[in-house]
Amino acid sequence: MAASPALPGLFFCFAAMVLLIFVSVSSPTWNKVSFLNVNQLSFGIFGYTGSKVQIGYYFPLPGDINTTTLHNLTSVLILYPIAAGLSGLAFLFGSCGAAYHRAGTVFMSLLAALAMLCTLVAWVVSMSLFGIVKSRLSSDRIDATWGNANWLALGALVALLLGFCTAACGVFGHYKRSRVR
Ligand SMILES: *[C@@H]1O[C@H](CO)[C@@H](O)[C@H](O)[C@H]1NC(C)=O
Questions:
Q1: Which of 43, 46, 91, 134 is most buried by a 10 A CB count?
Q2: 64 C-alpha vs ligand 1 centroid, how far in Å?
Q3: Boundaries of domain holding 99
């Protein structure tokens, strides 16, 4: 039997899930993964170096950076772990698609599309949020550098786009009605 038409989508959804899990355990859980680094502080989804894990946080930085607007934007970053969960579900349904039935592949492509939307919104928000913080810091002559999580998230976005396309194409592939494994 030829390889299942669900396999390419399955691969991309798995890759996206792994990347999004890495993004989700960013600072303060794992300080090596961050969106923005300022001096010794690295900023992640649920806080920054030394802070507690929380949904939405205030920037512990001087001047016009500790604002309610930016605080509210950090809450939106919860879309990253949600997208990770959706990619995981897409992978789960895709496995059923690969093993048993076309319906699994249909659900995989729908969930991959949903995860892609979440990741897209989260990525646009995180790039603008930390872009604003970075530019306000540089006008205060404080150096900030981009962290690796931005590229991990971009990779996940591309993986989900490919995952959705390949899964959608996989729906129209050949599925045996019985005796498949
Ligand atoms: C930032 O603002 C919040 C709410 O206005 C306040 O509770 C917090 O102490 C401020 N933090 C700093 C470092 O200024």
A1: 43
A2: 11
A3: 4-52+67-170
